[in-house]
Amino acid sequence: MARVAVVTGGTRGIGEAICQRLKRQGHQVIANYAGNEEKAQAFTAATGIPAYRWDVGDHEATLEGCARVEADFGPIDIVINNAGITRDGTLHRMTFEDWNEVLRINLGGCFNMAKATFPGMRERGWGRIVNIGSINGQAGQYGQVNYAAAKSGIHGFTKALAQEGAKFGVTVNAIAPGYIDTDMVAAVPAPVLEKIVAKIPVGRLGMAEEIARGVAFLTSDNGGFVTGSTMSINGGQHMY
Ligand code: CAA
């Protein structure tokens, strides 16, 4: 059945692949984006998927953004909380702002999107929320106390909300990607990235589409008995 699906951070990287995959599944997909106007316009021109701008870390803006989507397309049944940023640095160099921005956007964004959409899913008796966590939220990562804490928080958030949604037909799951070939990973200094890739048993970076396939399963009717779970898609880098 065709549903209205919102993918945050949906115009680039993993989010873009998720948008395309959900569209191929027959859903009405809406991509959210925060700032890269040029990329968002190119994305819409290439895919036909509408892109709506708001900052998921801003509570009021998220409520308004989701209300605009619902006014234009109807109730939101599927939410993919994919938007995320990095501000890497060892603790002694990390500023409070680096800490706060990552928590505000990566973890706060999940709360804000759930506040905007979970009550409606609960009332209608069907919903799917997939939160994109990270291998680095499971295992930690040197230089990422902010990101690892936010992503680890996403895994806890997922398990708590899954318990609240279960009896209302709303599943809440997480995917923990490993290192995926995106702009975010390309920003890791080359010598550091080489060492990381050397530790991936499959011997390569993942592809965004490989995360999108997991999202397709978790959001389908076939995934109805799967809730509160974390699907690790990381080439065997961390077996958890
Ligand atoms: N464990 C122990 N020591 C480490 C280490 C590790 N994992 N990584 C680096 N070090 C050590 C280095 O060997 C070095 O030690 P020496 O000075 O004794 O040689 C010291 O730490 C400093 O290392 P750098 O030169 O790298 O330090 P820097 O200050 O220039 O940079 C950093 C620090 C910004 C954290 C950099 O190491 C970095 O970018 N690391 C990658 C972080 C990362 O993996 N980010 C993931 C981004 S993608 C993503 O997050 C998506 C996802 O979900 C997977």
From TrEMBL:
<dbReference type="InterPro" id="IPR011283">
    <property type="entry name" value="Acetoacetyl-CoA_reductase"/>
</dbReference>
<feature type="domain" description="Ketoreductase">
    <location>
        <begin position="3"/>
        <end position="178"/>
    </location>
</feature>
<dbReference type="GO" id="GO:0005737">
    <property type="term" value="C:cytoplasm"/>
</dbReference>
<keyword id="KW-0560">Oxidoreductase</keyword>
<dbReference type="InterPro" id="IPR057326">
    <property type="entry name" value="KR_dom"/>
</dbReference>
<protein>
    <submittedName>
        <fullName>Acetoacetyl-CoA reductase</fullName>
        <ecNumber>1.1.1.36</ecNumber>
    </submittedName>
</protein>
<dbReference type="GO" id="GO:0032787">
    <property type="term" value="P:monocarboxylic acid metabolic process"/>
</dbReference>
<dbReference type="InterPro" id="IPR036291">
    <property type="entry name" value="NAD(P)-bd_dom_sf"/>
</dbReference>
<dbReference type="Pfam" id="PF13561">
    <property type="entry name" value="adh_short_C2"/>
</dbReference>
<dbReference type="GO" id="GO:0042619">
    <property type="term" value="P:poly-hydroxybutyrate biosynthetic process"/>
</dbReference>
<dbReference type="InterPro" id="IPR050259">
    <property type="entry name" value="SDR"/>
</dbReference>
<dbReference type="InterPro" id="IPR002347">
    <property type="entry name" value="SDR_fam"/>
</dbReference>
<dbReference type="GO" id="GO:0018454">
    <property type="term" value="F:acetoacetyl-CoA reductase activity"/>
</dbReference>
<dbReference type="InterPro" id="IPR020904">
    <property type="entry name" value="Sc_DH/Rdtase_CS"/>
</dbReference>
<comment type="similarity">
    <text>Belongs to the short-chain dehydrogenases/reductases (SDR) family.</text>
</comment>
